Amino acid sequence: xxxxxxxxxxxxxxxxxxxxxxxxxxxxxxxxxxxxxxxxxxxxxxxxxxxxxxxxxxxxxxxxxxxxxxxxxxxxxxxxxxxxxxxxxxxxxxxxxxxxxxxxxxxxxxxxxxxxxxxxxxxxxxxxxxxxxxxxxxxxxxxxxxxxxxxxxxxxxxxxxxxxxxxxxxxxxxxxxxxxxxxxxxxxxxxxxxxxxxxxxxxxxxxxxxxxxxxxxxxxxxxxxxxxxxxxxxxxxxxxxxxxxxxxxxxxxxxxxxxxxxxxxxxxxxxxxxxxxxxxxxxxxxxxxxxxxxxxxxxxxxxxxxxxxxxxxxxxxxxxxxxxxxxxxxxxxxxxxxxxxxxxxxxxxxxxxxxxxxxxxxxxxxxxxxxxxxxxxxxxxxxxxxxxxxxxxxxxxxxx
Length: 400
What we know:
By secondary structure, this protein is α/β, with parallel strands linked by helices. The chain has helices at about 15-20, 25, 35-40, 45-55, 70-85, 105-115, 130-135, 160-170, 240-255, 260-275, 305-315, 335-340, 345, 360-380, and strands spanning about 5, 65-70, 95-100, 120, 145, 175-180, 195-200, 210-215, 285, 295-300, 320, 350-355, 395-400. Strands 2-8-7-6-5-3-4 form a seven-stranded mixed sheet, with helices on both faces. The radius of gyration is 22 Å and the shape is globular. It starts with a strand and ends with a strand. About 50% of the residues are buried.
C-alpha cells in the first residue's frame, strides 16, 4: 500500500482542479497581455479565478491580491519591501518574527540583519505557541513590521493571529502573516482580523505547485520585488501563469467547501491515529489537539532517530517528514523541538504526519501497524534507548 502523509509539504492536485486547468496548456494558451483572440480567451477564466481567491479569504475588492510564484516569493517580498520603504530610509530599524517561522521568513530576516536591520525572534512556549502578550514587550517606536505565521508548518499549532493583529493595529505597526498552512484547515477571513499582508500557496490546498499569492490591505501596497511589465497592476511583473491561477482559484473554492469535512472527519481520523501512537511508551506529541489544525501530528519516539523511522516508513510505502520540506536535506534536530527546550534525545526524533481530505481510514490503519513494527525494530537495535523514569516530565503530551 502507498500512503501519503506529508500534506504539509505538498498536496495532490484535486482532480477537479486539474480538469479546470487542462485547457490552458494546449487550447487556450494565449498570453493575457496580447491583443488577439487567443489572449482574450483567457480573460474571463482569470477574472473568475481571482474572484474565487478573493472570496476564499473574504478579501474586499478594494484590497489587492497579487499572484506570485510561491509563498517564498511572497514572504521575501513583504520583508524586503518593508526594508526598502522603512528601514533603508531611516524611518524605522526593527522587525519582529517568531523563532519558528518558515525558512523563507527566517532566512530573509537574517539577510536583512546583515544590512543593518534589527530583528527580534519571539520565543514559543512549551506547547509550541506564541503568547501574544509577549509581543507587547518587544514592539518599539522603531518597529516597522511584525511577521508571525498563522499555523506552524511543523506542529500544526494555531498562533494567536487575532490578538497579534490587534496589538499591531494599536501600536501602528504593519502585520504580515504566513497563512500557507491555514487555508483549507481553519477559517481565514481578512476582514475579521487586523492583517495587512497575508501569504498563501496553492499547492498546500490541492492546487498546482509554482503559484501563490500575497494579500495586501488597501493602502498597504508594497514596492515591487520585480520590475518590468504592467501585470498585476504593475505590482508584480511577469507573464501570468494562467493555468496556475485558474487552478489556484478552483483549489481555493474546493478548500473552502471542504473545510467542514476537514475540521470534523479528518480531525477524527487524525485523533484516532494519534491515540494509537500515544499508546506506545515514551512517545510525545507537541501542542495540544485543541490548539492545532485538524490534520497535523508532530510526534517523537524516544530512542529513535527521525531519519531511521522515515527509512522504515518509506520502505513500507508511507510518506512522512522530519520537518519542513525546504530544509529536508539538512539532517538537523527539529527546530520546534529545539525552541520548546526538548531534551537532546527527543529533538532528533520528531516525525510529522500530515493528513488531507484524501486520507482514508484504511491508510491510517496500515500506518499504525507499520509504525508499531518500526518502533519495535529500531528500539531493539538501539544502543542508547532506555525507558524514561517513572514520572519523568518532558513538557510534552505523553504516551503511556
